[in-house]
Amino acid sequence: MKKPVIDAQNVDLTFQTNDGPVHALKDVNLQINKGDFVSFIGPSGCGKTTFLRCIAGLETPTGGSLTVNGLTPEEARKSRSYGYVFQAAGLYPWRTIAGNIKLPLEIMDFPKAEMDKRVEKVLDLVDLKGFGKKYPWQLSGGMQQRASIARALAFDAEILLMDEPFGALDEIVRDKLNEELLKLWAATNKTIGFVTHSIPEAVYLSTKIVVMSPRPGRITDVIESPLPKERPLDIRDTPEFIEIAHRVRDGLRAGHEA
User: Fold this and answer.
1) What domains can be seen in the chain, in order of their start residue?
2) Predicted model pTM
3) N or C, fewer C-beta in 10 Å, the chain?
4) Nearest-CA neighbor of 185 among 222, 141, 229?
5) How confident is the model at residue 15 (pLDDT cuts 50, 70, 90)?
6) How many Cβ atoms sit within 10 Å of the Cβ of residue 148?
7) pLDDT tens digits, residue range 149-172?
8) Cα 161 to Cα 133: distance, rounded to the nearest angstrom
């Protein structure tokens, strides 16, 4: 049996603050396998982003164990095991789109020819071919977020961690980017961890939906999606989709009542 790409065992995290300790995560157990698309959903402040940051080695659990590709999160971060997409695109306004995408490759000392080749490839993957010479302010919010995804893909890490990347976008743009993200996932076979507040988004995108409770964040349900990998947007009108959405909603409600 293959080892999971991400393996969390009884993960706890307590932050020490001036007002006393804040218990952010409690007894989190989760296995994510290669090629999974896992969404984390729960109320604000439930620890979704905190857990994603633990996977990325940006926060350190105070209890339990967490491995990424069999390494500690810090070792995985140093070995460039993942790309990270934040809520805001975070593009440098003085750099072109190509220049922004090249940034991690420059830090890693890739040869120029290899950088150019990779930039061209990821621009094509996120449907931004021909926009490399534009500046961020010349692109819409949705296009900027696609450029941010391209930057995270540039060095071809196996894992893509995404912290509510479409939360600030309107519904029409969000739907389009959801469709494009599924195509991207199918084309690259990345393992994706995705934080969202949207039940339809979580159900539409995921092979596995992780429902979390209010703080301290616990996992109240893990739903393995029976939906096919090919998912047109109108799959959201099917009884199967609606049934999963109901289960997510029930899990969120149960978490609040626990």
Assistant:
1) 6-81+162-257 (3.40.50.300), 91-156 (no CATH)
2) 0.90
3) N
4) 229
5) confident
6) 26
7) 999 888 888 899 999 988 878 888
8) 26
